[in-house]
Every structure is written in structure tokens, then in C-alpha cells.
Amino acid sequence: MVANLSIPSFSNNYIKGQNVKPKIHVLAVKDKSKLDKPVIAYIVVERTEKAKSYNDGGQIYEASITLSYQLIQIGITPFRTAQSFQGGYSDIQNQVSLSSVSAGNGAIFLDLQGLCGQRIGTYLMNEIVMWAKQWPDANVNPIRLSIGQATTDNKDRRNKFYESFGLEFIYSDSDKKEGTSKPIKVKELKENLKWQKNIEVIEMMPFIENLMSNLNKQQLDLVQSTRAIERLGKENQFARSHPFKWLVKSIWYNNTNYFILLILIIAIGLVVWIRY
Q1: Same domain, 130 and 57
Q2: Rounded distance between C-alpha atoms, residue 194 and residue 149, angstroms
């Protein structure tokens, strides 16, 4: 029997023959308009699923999923808090919510300053949608769009975000600032994989190992730089104390090959002169 040495929360798991993403993983986010540039943000995501069944191992009558996320920041932020996307299912109501752990109404907010429009919300919502696909004939609880969220730079992005998952809306105004999604079954929801263009899902252990490798490299570079500075300091001190010796030494070390060549030429010349 081979032991599983991986940490369950950090590694892919197989449940009923299906590959399940690690409970805790990292999103490496690039600017979607500058894909050739380095990663602009790392985000930790924790996936928590709960389910209740009528009997042990029987039909599920209530389930929920929570995707908690937090931006990895440099330095200590005393009031750092995690945000979340949530989903819920109720067998009694035959209903799925894409915004709440219950089958009721909820709200969806992506509070990552400076990262709006980078498809992070698309990744999180897609995970909720794919989780809900377990109950294809369940009704999707209506999504209500608030006029308070329909700011100039957010309205179109918000509307397209929901529509990309197959939701259609009945708007209460011509500017499409406020409205409610039309009735739809879970099986009619669409998978959205656009996030794959600029986001990479990384397991936690490889992410930590890469950080440690980079840290070790930086420490080695620091040691080498410190030694080089010390050598330069000693060289500077020697130059001030013994300027003539330092000059001769510098000329010799910087032109060693030329001096050796000159000596060889002189030696050959002497040999030829002595013989003839």
C-alpha cells in the first residue's frame, strides 16, 4: 500500500472518479491586456462545501459552497479580511442560488481594489455554476440587479458578467441599470472559461516551494553582493594606504595576458639573438 503524502487541503482529490480542485489554492493573475507581462496579483482561495442528506449517503436535501478569497499583500495589513462567493441548493424548493449558501437571495461583490475586470469574479462564479450542475433540473434563484451597482464604469461589465453564464434579464429601465433575471434551469447555465486567458490556478505546495526557491536565490545573491562590497571596501582602503602598489597591482591584474605575451616575445627574441 502506497501512502498518500500530499496534504489534502493543498492537493487535487478524486471523489467518485472526478478530479476535485484543492480546498486551498492560489490564483496567479495577469493583466488581461498585458499577457506578456509578469503576474500582477496572487489570490488565495479556500473552497468549503457542505451537504445534508436524508440518510447516511442518501439523497442530498441541502448543500452549500463558499469560495473565500484574499489578496496576498506585501507587509502586514491589520484589518485584512477575506471576502467570498457563495452558492446554495435546496431539494425541498428544487432551487439553486448562485449568490447565497441558502436557496434565498444574496449579493455578489468582488472587493479587490485595482483588480476589477481581471476575470477573478468570472473564475469564482464559474466554480459556483459548475458546482450547481449537480442538480441540472433545479431552478436558478433569480438574480436581482440593483441600481446602486450600476455606476458608469461598472454597469456594462456587471450585466455582461451575468449574461456570460447564460442569464437573461428583464430590465426595469431602458439604461439596464436595474432588473431581475428570467426563470432558468441549472442545466441552461453556461460554463465560462475566459478566466483561463489570464489566470492560472496553482496548488499551494508548488506555490510555497517556488516562493522558498526565490527567497533562497535572493539570499544567495545578497551574500554574494555583500562579499563583493567587502572586497571593494578592502581594495579602496588598500588604494588609499598604498597608492603606488595598488597602481602596479591593478595594471598587472588587468593586463596579465598582455604581460605574459610580451615576456614570451622578449624570451623568443633573446633566444634567436643568442643563437645568431
Answers
A1: yes
A2: 23
b vs e for 188-204, b when ≥16 Cβ sit within 10 Å of the residue's Cβ? ebeebeebeebbeebbb
Mean pLDDT of the chain: 81
* 193 in a structural domain: yes
Q: What pTM, to 2 d.p., does this model score?
A: 0.75
Residue type, 131: W
Q: Which domain holds residue 263?
A: 242-276
231 falls within a domain: no
Q: Does 26 share its domain with 75?
A: yes
pLDDT tens per residue, range 159-178: 899 999 999 999 988 888 88
Q: How far is CA 62 from the centre of its chain?
A: 31
Q: Is 7 helix (H, G, I), strand (E, B) or coil?
A: coil
**E strands along the chain, which residues?**
13-15, 18-20, 24-29, 41-53, 60-71, 83-90, 95-97, 139-140, 144-145, 169-171, 179-181, 199-203
Close Cβ partners of 209 (under 8 Å, ≥ 6 residues apart):
none
In sequence order, the β-bridge partners of residue 88 are 64, 97
Q: What percent of the chain has pLDDT over 90?
A: 38
